[in-house]
Structures are given as C-alpha cells and as structure tokens.
Automatic annotation (TrEMBL):
Keyword DNA damage among UniProt keywords: no
Keywords, sorted A to Z: Iron, Metal-binding, Pyridoxal phosphate, Signal, Thiamine biosynthesis, Transferase
Oligomeric form and interacting partners: Homodimer.
Superkingdom to which the source organism belongs: Bacteria
Pfam families listed in its UniProt record: NMT1 (PF09084)
Residues annotated as signal peptide: 1-26
Name used for this protein in its record: Thiamine pyrimidine synthase
Coiled coil: none
Its biological purpose: Responsible for the formation of the pyrimidine heterocycle in the thiamine biosynthesis pathway. Catalyzes the formation of hydroxymethylpyrimidine phosphate (HMP-P) from histidine and pyridoxal phosphate (PLP). The protein uses PLP and the active site histidine to form HMP-P, generating an inactive enzyme. The enzyme can only undergo a single turnover, which suggests it is a suicide enzyme.
UniProt organism field: Roseomonas haemaphysalidis
Amino acid sequence: MQRRHLMLAAGAALSLPAIRPAAAQAAPVRFALDWALQGNHAMWVLADDKGIFRDNGLSVKIDRGFGSGDTAVKVAAGAYDLGFTDISTAVKLNAENPDKRLVSIYQVFDRTAAALITLKGRGIAGPRDVAGRKLGSPEGEGSRMMFPAFAKAAGIDAAKVNWTSMAANLRDTMLAQGQVDAVTGFLFTTYFNLVGIGIPEDNILAWPYAENGLDLYGSAVVARADWLEKNPQVAAAFVKSSILGLRALLADIPGGMAAIQKREALFDTALEARRFAMTRDRSILTPNVRQHGIGYLDMARAETLIRVNAEAYRVANPPSAASMFTDKFLPPASERQV
C-alpha cells in the first residue's frame, strides 16, 4: 500500500497563489506544507513576501498540505522537492522505501506537538487518570500510535484505555459532546479547534507528550536523499531562508498573519496569532533551542524517535539516525542563536 501511494502521489496538490514573481535566475523549488495555512506557516510566506527566498537564489512554490503522512509520501514520490512534515512519519516510510529515503534537514519543531487533551469535569486530573476512560483519535494517527510509549513514560496503564476511532474532523466535536473522555492529537490544533467551537479555555486540560516524559522531535523540513545529493546549495539556501523567515515572524507576528490572509481570505488572524504563540513556546523556542540555537540536532534524541516509532509501527529494520537526520545544511551556529 505504501509503495502504491508513492506511485500515485505526483500531481495531487492544491497550489497557493504566489505573491511575488519568480526571480529570473532563481532555482525553482516545489515545497509542500503539512496542512492548510496556519500561523506557523507564516515563516515561509514571509520568506516569500519579503524577498528572502529571492535574495538567496530561490523561486519557491508553496502548496498547502493534506496531513504530514500525505506530504511525506509526496516528497518521497518526487512530487515535491521539499516538505514540512512530522518527522516520525519518515521512520516506517524509509524502512519500506530505502530508495526514496527522506532526510530531516531542519528540525523546525524541536518538540513534538502530540498531546493528551481533555476537558474539566471528565474525571481526568492527570495523564494516569485516562486509564479506564474512553480515549479518542483517528486510527493510525501519529499521536495514537505513539501513545503506548507516552503511557510508559507517564505511568499510564495503557491496557485499561478504551479507544474510540473517528475521522480527524470529528475528534474535537466528539470530545466537546462527551462522546469520548479525552483525545490525543497535536496540542495547538485540537486546543484552538475546541476554542473555535465555543469551549471556554479554562475548561481545556492538556499534557504534551514532550513535557511529560516522551521528548521527541516534531515537524521538520525534509527532502529525498538523492535530491539532496544533487542540490546541496539549494537545500542550504532554503534552510537559511526558512530561519530568516522564522526570525521575521517572531519579530512581527501580526505582520505574518496579515501576509497569510492575503493568500487565504478566510484566515482568522487573531486565532492563528495565538496558535502560533503556543507553537512558538511549546515546540519551536524550547529550552534546548534557546541553549543551542535554531535547528540544533541531538543525535541521541533522533535515535530515541526512531526507536519509539519502530516499536509503535512494528518496523523490523528501522533506519539509522545518521541516514535520516543531518545538520550539514544549517547555517553557522552564530546565525542560529535566539
């Protein structure tokens, strides 16, 4: 099934309208996001709008995504040169498709956003209380697949958890309606989806995996290994531009939200500014990044991510950390300090 998806992936993207015309001699780059435009994506929109890509010799076509798994498959299939995806999706994919191996060249999210989320009044005051309760998530979704590892780290009796499966777009509504007692998912996605359907913020309780014993890397810029071998300068220019775009966003969040709204008229700038602030504080500017710099790569953490995902997806021949992570396309450490 994985191989068939790789064969069918080319050409299945919805393009976002470009704001700036491509520079005459710029290297063309096809880049896929992980989802529809959200606040953190403004780092790349600003890199485009402010001419950062152009100044670094790139003409980047940014397309929305349809989930991290879909983006990873499309980059592996060659439909895109680069993608933004939860790096955990690459473990199983690389093991099954070594000739289409994906490599993380910039860890944008130093910590995974996966979390256990519930509402007050459900009898869950801490992670361990989810035992014996109804826990909901789409079947096969990353946060659900990693839950056994989180349960072990957080002291949860995973055998007593009763799972309910649903489509991703129904998860938050089912939690709000009491059809499940708690859910797993990306913190900043589910949290603000609940806010958007009228749940008071004081009623939302959440325990991010990374802050409760399972400190894994999150979403990253990825490319195929063979593409990187042929385009090292383009890859380095894209990473540099991405970091400069992130700096521009950190300096002017309202400006970043306004830039996205130019491309997506229904974009909620106020809500997305708050979503980005949570993403910034919980996944991007972590204590580790503040100490070592943006994109800092710790191979021991990379090995832990591979091991946890190999166990979750029952991968018998997991890829090595060295084959799946690299920091050689990052700018010098002096340019990555925060």
